[in-house]
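In the previous chapter we treated chains in isolation. Here, by contrast, the input contains two separate entities that must be folded as one system, with a combined length of 459 residues.
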Amino acid sequence: MTATFWQRLDKAGRNLAPFAVTVMMVLVGMVPAPVPGYAPVAPNLTLISVYYWTIHRPDLMRPGVAFMIGLLQDFLIGGPLGVNALLLVVAQWAVLNQRRVFLASTFALLWFGFTLVMAGAVVLQWLAFSMLDSAALSILPALFQGLLTVATFPAVGWLLIRVHRAFLNG
Amino acid sequence: MKPRSSGSVIRLAAPLRALAQRFSFLLLVLASIALMMVGKIESVSVDTARARVTDAFAPILDAISRPAATAARVVESVVELENAFDENQRLKAENARLLQWKQAALRLESENSSLRSLLRVRPEPSVNYIAARVIATPGSSFVRTLVVTAGKRDGVRKGQAALAGAGLVGRVIEVGEWSSRVLLLTDINARVPVVLGNSRQRAILAGDNSDQAKLLYLPPDSPVQAGERVVTSGDGGLFPPGLPVGVVTAVSERGVRVLPSADLSRIEHLRLVDFGLPGTDLDLSPEWK
């Protein structure tokens, strides 16, 4: 019944997978691609990861974890502190409240749900930046980023399912 | 007795846990908003912390940006191979034209130096360049910065100009030990004192998060034309004067737009200019972020 030290270490390591994968998504999302106009509309991989893990392992993607990841992202991208932290905490909370709906549903509905979350995130981000820069910024780049993120959702989701099965089955 | 008490504990624990969860959500939202305030007020210490975090992740970012750059180079070289013949013809023509310009430049240089010696002009302070590789872009629609692989130990200082290819790219806003961050010209927070090529009109180039920047504080009747070159004016002692910035693309009631000479969306390497001007210790003035 009592797990040995190594078993516990192994379990702790596996339980770190959602956090580690999401941090990796933060970093991969920042890789410069020499495609004209790519950087402003680079897909928000972090949000996909937080969305996925909140639905499937909410015990490992707690609000505190989402907050820490958002804060890391804020530090790394060089924008104002707190914006991505707020974004991910709100997204985590919203998804957690509707988790039962998502868990029982098909992939298409999961995708649709993400589209709604992304739409909320786009508006929230735009509001936060407009207030912090005290200027009416254009929402268009954020909107394109949202569309691109929704488009990459199936591919990233597939990858996350792989990670999920490899590390956290059983 | 026992089962009942454990049942009541469960009955109590469920709402408590829900309360804690809701509370933690509110707490974290408030913490985020507090951080935004702190970032506005305490920008210097936030920048220091940011530089530390960026430093810590720079090796990983460096490693994962390499394969992406390599893949891009392979694709590009295939495309280039296809266009090699046309490119060769074009370059030959351009070379012939540039040779003429070289003659003109040499003549002007000798004339310039002889005039300088007549006037005893003090030479401009010497300029050193620090080359650096771009390892990260923000991946956000509202922030235009780059992280590069050069820091304090390479001689990078806050406020140095960043150049790539054809012109100015931006300014160093934050320096870590081995990485630093460059604010691009097009970021909404970027302000660069410039002078227009033909009319010698001074203005401030300001970004607005689009691909082009706009000119501020131009007199309303200034004779600006599309196609005019924009260079740094050197006002404020931040940048050396005469660095190419961009070209005026549109003049209308809504303002004058300037397209940066350097292609800001595909910078792989850049040069940081160590312009040896005294009295530009920007770490002391937080408002010039």
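Chain A has a mean pLDDT of 88. Helices of chain A lie at 5-15, 17-28, 45-56, 63-77, 83-97, 99-103, 107-132, 140-168. Compare these points with the single-chain example from earlier in the chapter.
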